[in-house]
Each structure stands twice: as structure tokens, then as C-alpha cells.
Design brief:
Radius of gyration: 14 Å
Shape: globular
Distance between the termini: 9 Å
Strand content: 25-35%
Helix content: 25-40%
Number of strands: 7
Order of helices and strands: EHEEEHEHEEH
């Protein structure tokens, strides 16, 4: 049983809904996920967890949601060292298809430069996650549960 921090930025609620579904699946596998919004978090919160899932939507021309962007700028070097990590990115190609779900790419790079280990390819959700909750999102969560 692993303690897992789900740290996320969410403005419209899609990222939160997605991570709640993933957390539900991980609970079914005996893990202890804790969901925490980026604006309510400090970098030191990461230290108490064995694994971290970062989630964030993409805004504008490929930028992170503001609270997640603010959070990662405060993180000291190496805080993810030795942590098992996963990334969830959301986006909508109608805004700027060139930067579709760029948040996942940014967060993956952040985890790598911080010394974390990405357990599997990022979950990338285009448009609303609602139709994908019991399909792609649940399937990705099952994969994560086996790897974590």
C-alpha cells in the first residue's frame, strides 16, 4: 500500500474530475491517494509521500494552469528524487492545436529534471474527460496501480 499525492491545478474542474477517478481506482487496489490543489500546497508536502501524480490543463499557447505554474516555480531542486511519478495533462485542440496538451510535456520534463521517475507515459486527455472516465482514464489508472 502506497501513499500517493495527487497534486493538481484545475480551474474548470476537468482535471479534478479526472484525478478523482484515478484516485478511486488506486483506492480499489489498496493505495492511499490524497488529492491536493496546487494553490493549497507547499513543496514540502511532497516529502511525506512515496509517489506523486501531477495533473494540469493546458492554457493559451502551451502554458500550465496558473496555480500549478506558481507551484512548480517554488519547488527546490531534487525534491522529486527517488519519487515514483505520473503525469496527467488535459487540453483542447480548438484553442491552439500546436500546443495541444502541452501541460503533460512540461510536467514530464519537470519531473525528470527534479530527479523523479516516470512510471508510464502520461495520460493525455483532449477535450472533456467525462466520456473517458470509465474507458481510457480508468484503463490508465489500472496500469498505474500495477506499476506503482
Amino acid at each position: 500500500m502506497l501513499s500517493i499525492l495527487f497534486l493538481y491545478g484545475s480551474t474548470g474542474g476537468s482535471t479534478e474530475i479526472t484525478l478523482e477517478k484515478i484516485a478511486e481506482v488506486l483506492r480499489e487496489h489498496g493505495h492511499e491517494p490524497v488529492l491536493q490543489r496546487a494553490e493549497c500546497s507547499q513543496p514540502s508536502d511532497i516529502e511525506g509521500f512515496e509517489a506523486v501524480v501531477l495533473g494540469c490543463p493546458t492554457y493559451g499557447h502551451g502554458v500550465l494552469q496558473q496555480h500549478m505554474d506558481d507551484f512548480i516555480r517554488k519547488v527546490p531542486a531534487g525534491i522529486f528524487s527517488g519519487k515514483r511519478c505520473a503525469v496527467v495533462g488535459l487540453g483542447d485542440g480548438k484553442y491552439d492545436p500546436y500546443y495541444l496538451i502541452e501541460a503533460a510535456t512540461i510536467l514530464e520534463e519537470f519531473v525528470k529534471t527534479q530527479g523523479g521517475t516516470l512510471l508510464l507515459p502520461s495520460l493525455r486527455i483532449n477535450k472533456s474527460p467525462l466520456p473517458q472516465l470509465t474507458g481510457a482514464i480508468a484503463a490508465w489508472a489500472e496500469q498505474l496501480a500495477k506499476l506503482i
